[in-house]
Design brief:
Layout: E1 2-4, H1 8-19, E2 25-27, E3 39-41, E4 47-49, E5 55-56, H2 60-68, E6 75-78, E7 80-84, E8 90-94, H3 106-110, H4 117-132, H5 148-154, H6 159-174, H7 183-195, E9 203-206, H8 210-213, H9 215-223, E10 227-229, E11 234-240, E12 243-249, E13 254-255, E14 260-262, H10 266-272, H11 275-280, H12 282-285, E15 292-302, E16 311-314, E17 321-324, H13 325-331, E18 342-349, H14 359-373, E19 382-395, E20 415-417, H15 444-450, H16 454-463, H17 467-473, H18 486-503
Parallel strand pairs: 1-2, 1-14, 2-10, 7-16, 14-20
Antiparallel strand pairs: 3-4, 5-9, 6-9, 7-8, 11-12, 12-13, 15-18, 15-19, 16-17, 17-18
Helix pairs in contact: 1-9, 5-7, 15-16, 15-18, 16-18
């Protein structure tokens, strides 16, 4: 197998394929792995991440990828989320001990001070609609799709509920504004992260830089018989008799494999495929109809500690999240700042308004936000600051976008797609951006593409012939919920087969 692209999608597909027994060769054009999950070195030697990545309890595939790649111990999960409004009022969201889903968040929601009782009443009614339909209200199936904002307006949400609840969660989760988000995706976030289980909302934050988070991927892949080739830019895929016959590199040489996984950005797909394929195959021709969403990261260094929490969520503010990078790195075994300062990273998703702004102006706006909610920052001196803008940070889940998103298994023999642009790719981008989360991450390529095809079926047939036999082998295995699709059940069986083969349960 040849996997092209060493971002999170390519890494997840490579590790899963290698663990399933396939010989994998991962090609990455840059001198490092991670793709958009990258770290940069400033002129003074300081390392910064391009954006803060997180995961959630419902992002089971992403967690499985971290476990298989040896990165699980670099992430810490938190049981409560702290949100603060411009008036300084704090609200804490966490599961109540002993309360089952979907009512486990009810006590903290009732005490959530940034919202009034009218706001909470209409939010609760919308939540009940999601629960009653098991995550799929009828109006989600309207032709062409509807925006999340329209879906919420039909349920009479107050403006404060929109601004201080729905927008806070969904812009962070999907990196897109409510009026630009398909309601399917927004509802899916709340169903999987909040309502269908007790632990889906728990947020996992890396305690190391992104460059270190994916350090173990190459070693993990090589231990399983795979190979990673850096600085290997692919020039084109050669097509022969309706199938991919080989990969051509910049220096002119070619390599061939039994199957190929494209895990590269959407705009790069057309560059490596023949023009005839892009024009004549709807899966590729429609890629240009998809769009991206921006994320901006602002990095601030203060001369003293200004924040004790590991992270905070800001309501009705340009800045959406503040992460205490100094404390997080120390939790992961990092060295303490000898000068006694503190490093904060701020995140603004769907940052369309910030793209044309000068970087200094962005710093000034975000610094005001920080000093408004963190009193200790008002007297602290800002010693350094930088801004990282990502205009095409992640896939934009626009209303009706699913009709343009290609499937992972293409109609070109031997060619599969990986990434957030695919119909079964990351649908929440926490881990991408969390990615995002959720959760379906890049490892779903294997389940929806390969496991749905001959490679996956052969693996299952060889190792675990039937679901019934697997259940007898692993009596503790949780049954697949009835509201999952048959494709999701095949995915669950496939990964259970791999786990039972590995652990002998």
């Amino acid at each position: 197998m040849i996997v092209i692209g060493g971002g999170q999608a390519g890494l997840a597909a490579s590790v899963a394929l290698a663990e399933a027994g396939y010989r994998v060769r991962l090609l990455e054009k840059r001198p490092f792995l991670g793709g958009r999950a990258a770290s940069y070195v400033l002129a003074d030697g300081e390392h910064v991440d391009n954006c803060q990545h997180v995961t959630f309890g419902c992002c089971t595939n992403l967690q499985d990828f971290y476990r298989r790649s040896g990165s699980a111990d670099k992430i810490r999960f938190y049981e409560q989320l702290v949100l603060i409004d411009p008036q300084g009022r704090r609200g804490i969201m966490r599961a109540a001990p002993g309360w089952p889903a979907p009512i486990h968040m009810m006590p903290s929601f009732a005490l959530f001070s940034p919202l009034g009782w009218e706001d909470k009443l209409w939010i609760a009614r919308a939540m009940f609609d999601i629960v009653r339909s098991q995550g799929h209200p009828r109006d989600l199936d309207e032709s062409g799709g509807i925006s999340m904002l329209e879906w919420l307006r039909r349920r009479r949400q107050t403006q404060r509920a929109l601004d201080r609840f729905w927008r806070v969660v969904l812009v962070s989760a999907l990196s897109e504004e409510l009026d630009r988000t398909d309601a399917r995706y927004g509802v899916d976030v709340f169903w999987k992260a909040v309502l269908s289980n007790r632990s889906g909302y728990r947020m996992g934050v890396p305690m190391v830089r992104l460059a270190e988070l994916y350090d173990g991927c190459q070693a993990s892949l090589e231990r399983k018989g795979g190979e990673v080739v850096l600085r290997a830019p692919v020039r084109a895929l050669r097509l022969e008799n309706g199938a991919i016959a080989g990969v051509r590199f910049d220096d002119g040489h070619e390599e061939a494999a039994d199957a190929y996984v494209l895990a590269i950005p959407r705009n790069a797909v057309a560059e490596v495929l023949p023009d005839s394929v892009v024009k004549n195959h709807a899966a590729f021709a429609n890629l240009e109809k998809l769009s991206d969403a921006p994320i901006t990261g602002v990095h601030l260094w203060f001369d003293r500690p200004v924040m004790s929490e590991r992270f905070l969520t800001l309501l009705e503010s340009t800045t959406q999240w503040i992460f205490n990078k100094t404390a997080l790195y120390q939790d992961g075994g990092g060295e303490k700042d000898e000068k006694g300062g503190q490093y904060l990273q701020l995140v603004i998703s769907a940052s369309y308004d910030l793209l044309p702004m000068p970087r200094q102006e962005i710093i000034d706006v975000c610094l005001r936000d920080v000093r408004q909610v963190l009193p200790d920052a008002r007297n602290a001196q800002l010693t350094k600051a930088t801004v990282i803008k990502e205009a095409a940070a992640t896939f934009s889940p626009a209303p009706g976008c699913d009709r343009w998103r290609p499937k992972q298994q293409t109609d070109i023999r031997g060619l599969f797609l990986a990434g957030d642009d695919g119909r079964r790719g990351p649908q929440w981008l926490f881990g991408r951006r969390g990615h995002p989360t959720r959760s379906r991450n890049s490892a779903d390529i294997l389940a929806a593409g390969l496991a749905g095809g001959n490679l996956g079926r052969e693996f299952i047939r060889e190792r675990r012939p039937t679901l019934k036999k697997l259940e007898k082998k692993c009596p503790s295995r949780r049954k697949v919920p009835s509201w999952f699709s048959q494709a999701r059940e095949r995915e669950h069986l496939f990964f259970e087969a791999m786990r039972s083969e590995r652990y002998g349960c």
